Amino acid sequence: MRLRSVYSIKQNDRLAKAIYNENGQVLVQAGIPLSNAMISRLKAKGITFAYVDDDVTSDIYFEEVITEQTRHSSINTIKKSFQAVTAPEVLKKSFEVDKVSRSFGGIVSNILHDVRKHKEAISLLSSAYCYDSYIFHHSLNVTVYALALGERLGLNEGQLKDLGLGSLLHDIGKMAVPTEVLHKKNALTDEEFAVIKEHTTAGYEMLRKTHTIPLLSAHCAYQHHERLNGSGYPRGIGGDEIHLYGKIIGIADVFDAVTSNRIYRKARLPHEGLELLYAGADNLFDKKMVEVFAKTVAIYPVGLEVMLNDGRQGVVSKQNKNMNARPVIRILQEAGRVISPYEVDLTKELNITIVKCEARLSKEEAS
């Protein structure tokens, strides 16, 4: 299978993996030749990347980090919980999230189980969702990234549980933000951005009054936009004033945001997301955490079409553990000609580097 931008998918291409809508229903089935109408539907639904099957890559397989069952059950619970706190009768009271949050512990346990079972670097790039459900899928993705990072950092079971709850609920305050501001396609005004920033305090106030949510988890909502140099919000704290969980979720939140499709821009590839984190290391983000996170996620996901510095082109066929920037490449073209495929392990060919990813969107597509 090959991971491709929907803008490079052509008529009669076959999806290697089905794409689901926000309700967990199949949007486009795998194995069926795509029509132009189907491709247009994927674009309209906000899908950026998809796996396409062909004969020379049919044995290349991408294993999902979390099962479809875990994903759909988690999304449904997150959605019900987030929507419950927007009900007028709830808003007038004290955001009684207790009634709808008791199943979150089970969700965290399921996600953690799946993350631990998954032996390769994590990639959520092809997890398809639609614009109107971004906040729910984003909350789940951030939880996956945060738990994987927390596990690598050596957090114990209790800490991981609190971190997982905080990750799932870190953006719950956005449900108090007016829809026209939250889903605005154009640039926000200063006044609108000030409204967006209030979601951190609103989320904290919701969660700290909830008996089933630990106070540390509530602080995840409060602190995930704080930065080491004090340039974040809502309080502008920095350094050790930011809790460990806030630092972890801050990294996971930014990475998923830039590698996910948004109303106002298309998704970037993982290596671009990591470049952004590294650019802010020791200034915005904890450098050691960024380095550990880079070993946790798939910089070049399986199936990604790449070009090497010697001009050869191929597909990422396998990840190398703890050497995410040096995967195994199945070479498919040399000197512009299609050849009999063979594989190159970049951990053994240190003079060979990836210089281009074919799934990268053009400037027009990414705008």
Automatic annotation (TrEMBL):
Gene3D superfamilies: Hypothetical protein af1432
Membrane-crossing segments per the record: none
Pfam families from the UniProt entry: HD_5 (PF13487)
Top-rank taxon: Bacteria
SUPFAM superfamilies xrefs: HD-domain/PDEase-like
Domain HD-GYP: 113-309
NCBIfam families xrefs: HDIG
Protein name per Swiss-Prot or TrEMBL: HD-GYP domain-containing protein
Organism field: Alteribacter keqinensis
